[in-house]
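Here is an idea for our session: we take a single protein and study its fold together. To get us started, please write out a protein record for me. Once you have written the record down, we can walk along the chain together.
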Amino acid sequence: MSLKEPPFPTLDDIMLQIGEAGRRMAEIGASEGAAGNISVYAGWLLEVQSVFPLVDEIELPVVAPALAGGWLLATGSGTRLREVYDRPLENLGVLQVAPDGRHARLYTAPARRFTRLTSELNSHLAVHNDKAAATGALYSALVHAQPLHLTYLSHIPQYRDPVELNRRLFRWQPETIMTFPQGIAVLPFILPGSAELMTATAAALHTHRLVVWSKHGVMAHSDVSVKRAADLIEYLETSARYEVLNLSAGEPADGLQPDEIRAIARALGIEQTIC
C-alpha cells in the first residue's frame, strides 16, 4: 500500500487493519485482558460522522501542531484489542485535531464501551506529531503491546542494556537484522502514561522502529500500515522466545555470530548499526 499519494485508505480500511492487528496481538499472547493500545494518524480527509456520530470537544494531553487538521483513530481505554475486529464501533474513537494542535473533536459511536481514549494517548500523539513534523508523513501507525517473552527479558537487569539486548536478540534469525537495521531502543522502567514516558518514547521512535518499555511492554511504529507495526512486535517476540528457550536450557546455543549477521546485511545491501 502506497501512502505517498492518493488513493489513501478509507475509514473502513483503517478500522479493519486495526482490528486485524489487535487480533494478532491477542493470538501471540501480547495483549492480555485490556492490555495494549493502537492508533493510526491519517492526514487526509476522512468521512467519519456517518459512522461515529457522537461529537465531544476535548483538550489534548499534549500539543500536536503537526497533526492539525488530521485524524487519529485510537482504541478506547479499557477496551480489548481482540474485540476490535468484530466490534470496532464499540472500541474505537476518532480525533480530529484542531488548527491550534491543542484541542480536538472526539467522534464516537453510540455503542462505545469507553469513556476516554487509551491511557497512553499522550505518547501516541507525541510520536505521531514527531513523525509528521520530521517527514511530512500523512500516515503513521503505532501499536503498544505486552509480548510475554520480550517483557519478561526486560525484567532481567542485563537485558535492559540496549547493547546487550540487541546482541542477544539479533542472533536468533536472519529476519531480525533485515527488519531492524538500526536496532531496537530500550527505555528503563518509566511510569505508564507519564509525561516522562511520552517524551522518552517520542525520542526513541524518532530513530528506531520499536522501543522496549522495560517491565511494561513495547511500542512499534510503521509509516506503511498498522499491520506492519504489529509484524515488528511479532518478529521481535519470536527472537525473545528463542532467547528465553536458550536460557532455560542452560544456553547451549550460540546463534548467529556477528560476522554471519554482517554477511547477511552485505548480501542484502542493508546498512545496519548493530555489528
